[in-house]
Write a structure and sequence with these properties.
With 80 residues, the protein is an alpha+beta fold. The protein has one domain (6-79). The protein contains 2 helices and 2 strands. The chain has a two-stranded antiparallel sheet. The radius of gyration is 20 Å and the shape is elongated.
Length: 80
C-alpha cells in the first residue's frame, strides 16, 4: 500500500439483502491527524468518523410519497 493515500471501502447497512452499492473514500495523510500515541481503536474510530462524514455528503433519502404524507398530516391537524 502506498503511503500517499488510503482508499476506504464501505457500504450502507440498511438491513436489506442484495443490491449493495459499494462506496469508497480516498483518505490522504493531510486528512487525518495521526500521533504516535494513538491506539488502534482511536485510529479505527477516526476512520469511522471520516466514513460517516463522507456518507452524509454522498447519500440522501428520496421520499416517493411526500405529498401523501402532507395530506395525511393535514388531516391530523384538521381533526385536532
Amino acid at each position: 500500500m502506498a503511503n500517499d493515500k488510503f482508499i476506504a471501502k464501505y457500504e450502507v447497512a440498511d438491513g436489506y439483502v442484495g443490491k449493495s452499492r459499494p462506496q469508497s473514500l480516498v483518505i490522504r495523510p493531510e486528512d487525518i491527524d495521526v500521533s504516535p500515541n494513538m491506539t488502534d481503536e482511536q485510529l479505527e474510530e477516526a476512520l469511522y468518523e471520516m466514513v460517516e462524514e463522507d456518507m452524509q455528503q454522498k447519500i440522501s433519502a428520496d421520499v416517493d410519497n411526500a405529498a401523501e404524507f402532507v395530506a395525511w398530516a393535514r388531516s391530523l391537524v384538521e381533526e385536532a
